[in-house]
Amino acid sequence: MRIGSPATNWPDRLLGAAFIRRAAALWTAIHMFVLAGSGGTVMSLEPLPAIAMVAMAAGLGVFDAKKRHEMLLLQNMGVRPVMVMAIWAAVALLLETLATLAEAAWR
Amino acid sequence: MTMLHADCIARRLGGRQILSAATLTADGGTVTGLLGRMGEGKSTLLKICAGLDTPDGGWIELDGVQYIEPRLHELARRGLYYLADLGNLASALTVRQHFDAVKRRFSGAAISDAIASMQLEQLLDSRPGAMSGGERRRCEIGLALARSPKCLIADELFRGLDPLVCEIVGRGLRQLAANGCAVLVSGHEVRALTAYLDSVVWLTSGTTHLLGAPAQALENERFRREYLGPLTPHASSLR
């Protein structure tokens, strides 16, 4: 019996959830550092550093997935490598937006 | 039926012409062995066939569709499965989670048959880091069996495996071929590999030579002289 090919680019739910967790952990670590550096007054980043952080998250996502031997498995399952970057970048962008909104509301 | 065909593949790496006019064909239901000395470009050719490297010239055809710059995820959707020599299993997932992922991705995957065939029952809750090289290879072939690809490309499949694991993995290859899969493997373990091959392709000086069945290949004078070495017994005594 020939098995059908996958239609979606979304990674398997286990790996997808792992990417979201790791991206959130990276974002939290960066912001803990920013928060500590500002003496507890700054939560969100300025636009330019925020963009740099999102780009860094995307790059780190691919590096991390390769290091953990997840990239080849994903590609064998028909998932585009760029999806890994997209998930990491989306998580970082979402959390940054939420932090900016939360900080604006706080002030 | 030809499942995978790579034609006139050229690749230059580090200022050296690795491949100049390499041609490779894998037919459904057969196991083809790609043999050649180290550094001749076997892995490069297989990576190009799998869409992990871009050739400087030539093209790939998988299941009737031509690609100039193929990508693995595209080819995988059309039924290709690629096994690198190392690092095919995600270190964060257990064997069971790998099989579950394949099952979710490819509906109808025959998971239990694949697990039984590769004798993985005791390893289902293990992670790759806690497994031996042979156990990982059995798991990788088990995943390929569960995926039931149209074409399997496996680089250095038997490297570092003991004879018993070679036999289990070799049986897995034959099982895939019996299901209609075109299997393409590379390696240097001539004695172990030839037992499972239908045909041998020799890669030397940047190009490929189809030598025919393993017995014919082992009788080929140039292949014996330039690859196997003068002390290798003839085909009749290897079998």
Question: What does this protein look like?
Answer:
The complex is a heterodimer of chains A (107) and B (239). Chain A is an all-alpha fold. Chain A has one domain. Chain A has helices at 13-37, 47-67, 71-76, 82-106. The radius of gyration of chain A is 16 Å and the shape is elongated. The termini of chain A are far apart. The mean pLDDT of chain A is 86. Chain B is α/β, with parallel strands linked by helices and 239 residues long. Chain B has helices at 42-49, 72-77, 95-105, 111-117, 133-147, 163-178, 190-194, 214-219, 221-228, 235-238; strands spanning 2-13, 16-27, 31-35, 57-62, 65-67, 80-83, 151-154, 182-186, 199-204, 207-212. In chain B, the strands form two sheets. A six-stranded mixed beta sheet of chain B has the order 6-7-8-3-9-10, with helices on both faces. In chain B, strands 2-1-4-5 form a four-stranded antiparallel beta sheet, with helices on one face. Chain B has a single domain (2-89, 149-238), classed as P-loop containing nucleotide triphosphate hydrolases (Rossmann fold), CATH 3.40.50.300. The radius of gyration of chain B is 17 Å and the shape is globular. The two termini of chain B are 28 Å apart. Chain B contains ten helices and ten strands. In chain B, strand 7, helix 6 and strand 8 (182-186) form a beta-alpha-beta unit.
What is the compact description of this entry?
The complex is a heterodimer of chains A (about 110) and B (about 240). By secondary structure, chain A is an all-alpha fold. Chain A has helices at about 15-35, 45-65, 70-75, 80-105.
Q: What labels describe this entry?
A:
heterodimer, A: 107 residues, mainly alpha, 4 helices, elongated, B: 239 residues, alpha/beta, Rossmann fold, six-stranded mixed sheet, four-stranded antiparallel sheet, 26% strand, globular
